[in-house]
Amino acid sequence: MEMSTPMVELTSTTIDIVLAFASFLLLLLMLILIFFLIFVCKPWRFFLSRSFTRSTTRIAPVSRNVKAEDLERPLVSEDSDRNSEVARNYDLEGASTQIEGHFNSPRTQGLAFKHRIPPTSPQHSHSDSLILDISEDTSVGQTLKRPSVTNISGDLQKVTEDLSHESEFGSGDKPNKPVPKHTVDQRSVLVLEVISGPSRGLRYSTQSTNKSGLPLTLGRVSPSALLLKDSEVSGKHAMINWNLNKLKWELVDMGSLNGTLLNSQSINHSNSGSRQWGNPTELASGDIITLGTTSKIVVQITSQTEQIPFGVGVASDPMSLRRGGKKLPMEDVIYYQWPLLGIDKFGLFGICDGHGGAAAAVSASKLLREVVADILADSVRRKRVLTKCDASDVLREAFTQTEASMDHYYEGCTATMLMVWTDDHENYCVQCANVGDSACFINIDDKHIKMTEDHRITSISERQRIQAIGEPLKDGETRLCGLNLARMLGDKFLKQQEARFSSEPYISQVVYIHQANSAFIVLASDGFWDVVNSRKAFQLVHETRDRSAKNGENTEEKIANILLTEARTQRTKDNTSIIYLEFGSNNRDSFSKS
Question: What Gene3D superfamilies does the record tag this protein with (predicted)?
């Protein structure tokens, strides 16, 4: 009996400790639950949202296809230092000439561009998809509840029609005045190229007469015309539109979180943090647009008084070595010009694929156009081309003079240039010249014609040319001085060391395209042809043309992008650039109606 009393006391103490610990745990769980309800569930949003809904006085159309997360603020990248890497050696002057010319067919691809209702008060906060009047008692940082789309969808068509002729960003209360008749035929081509940031190498182009594609949006979510995979870019970051009254391109910030700079000057709304749109600012050729801190876009603007009488589509992507990996340096250069400066009825379309850098490709693309224009400025030589329907001498001389003018010793490029000209009956002649492995194919009434020659070391024709020089290649030898090409422009140092290198172009036969013919041309760099053969390319073209014809769409730009997507799907590991030209009665009909 004497031993039992301490044991009872010990047991009672243990129970007290256990109860105290359980009480502590229960209290801790209650605190965690309260914290979760307050800071995670945020129950007050329900009441504030109802209050805000009652204070809303006007709602603009909302697209059915826009998801709720489209309007969320962008995520600030934790590795912004890594993404801020800018190509310091990038030649801005060269970049502004990398795509020059005019598109007949704007990029459609089913994008739905929405106009903005002119605000009745300068205090409105809005985006391109949703416009709301916010009462003064709404707290800053409050999450706003999106209104039901079904309540306003019935007015979408009418509002779109009412705004279809609006040319500015809706900064005024009155609609724009009718455009003077003499300005209707004035056309301007806008080309945007991303020169730094995660989407470096991405390009987009449009023209001032593209009513369905304007205004165009720059942002992180679809359906932005220039879709940037940059976490510092807002879903709908900035907008570009053509001002018919001023005949100028204008840029406006759409209330982005991280801001928009034009030539290092902010164009945001003066009330920073309000997420209100800024004022429209005029663009000029050579301007640099910065979205956030890393994505920089160079602007190229060219004027055209004559529209290309056939369809043109252009697409390019630097690609990456593995899916989701870092983009490769962009060394392809696309160029096109119709008509040539001061030379009616003649145009050039080409791709230069650089190696060792893009400088040689930029120089070659500029020199080739200048030399051809100088040669054809001679009326005698121009008449000879038109009479004989043959530009072989012009193309050969253009390559010779370009090679002589280039001083690139350690950089070189391939060059594929297509010349197109019309006769007195509006029929077309096309002829191609090339060095390297960027290829050009034409399909005319379902007949396939290759208009280039492959100048890789492994090519049979190239090995025969080298053997004729007297220094044949050894069996199994696939490279000269580390290059898999035997013909290129530039690379002066290698050509001094190895006599088997050449800059002599291959000149194709002239292909005649009659008005009644249905024809298209695919010109692409080796990044495309390495993974897609001509048969597959033509199949994709035919399928896209058939689908687009049923929907009444312009196909050229869409086809170029579908071909680019196929190369990406096939995991190409090289820069890929594509020019697509389409000739035919259907294209002329659409041209005459535009």
Answer: 2.60.200.20, PPM-type phosphatase domain
Q: Determine the residue type at 378.
A: D
Which residues are CB-neighbours of 122 under 8 A, at least 6 positions away? none
Q: Which of 185, 197, 281 is nearest to 240 (CA)?
A: 281
CB atoms within 10 A of CB 388: 12
Question: In whole angstroms, what is the distance from residue 143 CA to residue 46 CA?
Answer: 10
User: What is the SS3 assignment for 46?
Assistant: helix
Report the percent of the chain where pLDDT is more than 70. Answer: 71
> How many Å separate Cα 501 from the centre of its chain?
35
> What's residue 154's pLDDT?
33
- What does the alpha-carbon distance between residue 202 and residue 382 come to, in Å, rounded to a whole number? 37
For residue 111, what are its two tokens? 């994008």
Read off the DSSP letter of residue 128: S
In Å, what is the CA distance from 114 to each residue of 162, 274, 351, 473?
12, 22, 34, 60
Per DSSP, the three-state class of 485 is: strand
Largest CA distance in the chain: 133
Q: What is the pLDDT of residues 546-587, one digit of tens each?
A: 887 777 666 898 999 999 999 999 999 999 999 999 997 555
Regions of the chain short of the pLDDT cut 50:
1-2, 49-185, 588-594
Which amino acid makes up residue 493?
F
CA 219, 220, 223, 226 torsion-angle sign: positive
| Burial class of residue 286 (count of CB atoms within 10 Å of its CB; 0-12, 13-18, 19+) | middle
Query: Phi-psi bin for 61: left (phi > 0), alpha (psi -120 to 50), beta?
Result: beta
List C-alpha distances in Å: 540 to 99, 107, 435, 457, 566.
25, 17, 27, 30, 9
In this structure, what are the phi and psi dihedrals at residue 191, rounded to the nearest 5 degrees? -120, 125
Beta bridge partners of 288: 298
Strand, coil or helix: 164: coil
Distance CA 566, CA 387 (A): 41
3-state secondary structure (DSSP) of residue 195? strand
Instruction: Name the residue with tokens 């047991």.
Output: 11
Instruction: Please report the pLDDT score of residue 425 as a whole number.
Output: 85
DSSP 160: H
Alpha-carbon span 548 to 157, nearest angstrom? 23
pTM of the model as a whole = 0.56
Rg (CA), the chain: 31
Hey, is 197 helix, strand or coil? Answer: coil
The answer to whether the beta carbons of residues 540 and 563 sit under 8 Å apart is yes
Full 3-state SS string of 560-581: HHHHHHHHHHCCCCCCEEEEEE
The answer to whether the bond into 61 is cis (omega within 30° of 0) is: no
Which residues contact residue 152 at a Cβ distance below 8 angstroms, ignoring those fewer than 6 apart?
59, 61, 62
User: Which sign, positive or negative, has the C-alpha torsion 509, 515, 519, 523?
Assistant: positive
Q: Do residues 451 and 440 lie in contact, with contact meaning Cβ atoms separated by under 8 Å? A: yes
pLDDT of residue 563: 96
